[in-house]
Amino acid sequence: MNRFLHSIEVMLLLFIAFVCIILDIGDAFNLFNFLPTSYILLALLFLSAVVLGTLASLLNDLSTLSKDIRRAAREDDIAYLQRAYMQVGENLRRVLGDGFFTGLLSPLQIALEEQVVHFREGNQFRLYYASTLKNYASETFLCSTTMKTFSIWLDTSISAANARFIKAGGKIRQIVFIKSGDDVSSVEFQKFVLHQKSIGVEIFIASMSMDTHVLMIELLRKDLFVGTRAPVAWEVFVDDSENIGLSVLIVNPSKIEDYRRVLDLAHQYTPEDAGPAIS
Predict the structure, then answer these.
(1) Does residue 126 form part of some domain?
(2) Residue 166 lies in a domain
(3) Over the stretch 140-156, which tens digit does the pLDDT of each residue have?
(4) N- to C-terminal Cα distance for the chain?
(5) Under a CB-based contact definition with an 8 Å cutoff, are residues 189 and 147 in contact?
(6) Which residue of 2, 109, 133, 185 pairs with 165 in a disulfide if CB–CB is 3.0 to 4.6 A?
(7) How many domains, in total, are found in the chain?
């Protein structure tokens, strides 16, 4: 579809250029002597404006059509997945049950419908987090954490991936949510900051005691890792042992924009007694 739109754009522009050349040649040889010279220039400008306006309208309509086609195709894919298990042999379905096969298809269906993928194991997060950094090597990422979830970012694999990413030119800006200014002087906080600074992560402080905002409350329940331009984000949780638990890879544009906005909002709540942001 993009190639088709580009072809139409090129053809119309070439048509404008061709008509302008004909009019210029005609003007040079007085082929249009029935028109005053000043009118020819006006005619050229008028023709260009009409064609360019038509081009803009056509491209807008075609862009809308392209989005509608992609949406319809996604809906067809989802509908197919919902009944795909019925193509499995009857004997297998009798032994294993339909639930077994719908469970296999469920992650793909969620990926199509919600544009997210869930991971239950820490090793999966480590693998695909590193892949995220590798595929967006020059990006700036916004990141959030609390003292309860420091273990995520102190993890050997995650820390090494961050160090490689920053050394290659990427940036990570991490917001640490604290309960009070006293947290800043704690040994745990200081060790975390020193470690993050040693690999090049920029650290900022935000207070948990700010006036609550619905997105901000959601933010405090998990750690976020969001690209400032890249259309990708991560939600990361810790289990009861403070190890990496559930993680969610997100490419849903509206959800990513919400997280970017809430992380920007967090910068407004730097507590006065916590001192300046650590960078």
Answers:
(1) yes
(2) yes
(3) 999 999 888 999 999 99
(4) 45
(5) yes
(6) 133
(7) 2
